[in-house]
Write the structure tokens for this entry.
Amino acid sequence: MAVVLGELAAGLVSPSVSPLTAVGGAVIDAVPGVVKEWAISLFGTGDKAALLAGMVLVIAVLAALAGVLESRRRLAGVAVVAVFGCVGLVAVLTRAQVTPNAVAVPLVAAVAGIAMLRWLITRLDAWRVAGDSSLTARRSFLQLLAGGAVVAAVAGLAASALRGAAAGISEVRGKLRLPAGQTPAQAVPAGAENGLSGMEPLVTPNPGFYRIDTALSVPLIDPQNWVLKVTGMVNREIELDFAALLAKPMTERHVTIACVSNEVGGDLIGNALWLGWPVRELLAMAGPRPGADMVLSRSSDGWTASTPLEVLTDSRDALLAVGMNGEPLPLEHGFPVRMIVPGLYGYVSATKWLTELKVTRFADDVAYWTPRGWTDHGPIKTSSRIDVPRAGHSVPAGTVMFGGVAWAQHTGVAKVELRVNRGAWQEAVLAAGISRDTWYQWKLGMELTAGQHEIQVRATDDTGKPQLEERKPVAPDGATGFHTIRVDVKS
């Protein structure tokens, strides 16, 4: 009841941060990187739902503990609730979105929780005084608990709806009309899709695009209040609002982005059509000073990424993106503005809910993931994946069609090869790529006899460098190795 009241109060006075989301965010920040990687590998894009489920379980256990202790010794359970409230307060104070209103919410929730606990203990004592034979007292107490659970559930749904209604960002996004790109996207070449059934789309639809970030709740930012600041080692500090950004000459580009947590053969990668203004144009207005070599980008929730200055000022299409696949950015993908940088893993480039670009040096500043054991540059490694047929599937003997994707962002893929049971490599048919900043589809038919077969794939980039065969984990700078599947061929 106290937690739900806190969420309800946050919906009224602090939609951007609540005790529950603040504690969850603090947990995400505090756990070691290896635990995060375990959670992502186990739950994938459902990692946040798993964390929330775990938090609900812990809250239930603490509530039961408070009741048992308070029933045995006065104020013992109250102390548990008070400590729980203090944890919520400390967590709220650590969030970048904290406001004076937000600070009061966990305190109010704790006081309400203590009052509820004392009232329930009073009713429990009345039941005890009446004696075990009093079915009326027992029924009254159990009905009270059941009623409290129903009220908590309804209030929880109301809190969720209220927080969404208070922000109203979805409605604002739905009414937003983006400008056309003055520099249009590359035309998708004929034959860029290999036509095999079961393949991922060449352009990933927004609902199916992977989401990995540290935001337990999606930041809700009104575009009318959004401001991007350029600070640090610059000749001129700049503030850019959303209307001014939309008035800039926009560029459309297909760019494939990937999470550094993507395992070999994983799906934490996607290709989309992005609309935005080149970052290099904004940095040119600010004028980076000599000696600067990094841009520390900051999200509205305080998350940061370290991006080499050179990749934001060269000719690649690093964008302040406002659109994704022909519509405004989805809320969970950074609305209203995020960064997209070809060639770099997202943890050093793809800052969502962007609010600041600080021009600095790697020697002077560190981003969110660097002190947690990850490298600070993060170029995407050449890799490839088998999508068809799926691992473990049975296929008929004869010509078996294999298909998948390969990527070597900002370098380009020259060829893709497959081999069976560690035999000779066979070159696949490589579809025309949209650009060197996107993935490529490929396909190959191979003659297979009945039995179990191991299939491996490797890609070679446009410089002639093949992807690494040595199997390495995602930490500290991305996984390597050949994607390997096993198929059961039936006669």
Summary: The chain has three domains: 2-167, 206-372, 383-490. Residues 135-167 form the longest helix (33 residues). DSSP finds eleven helices and 19 strands in the chain.
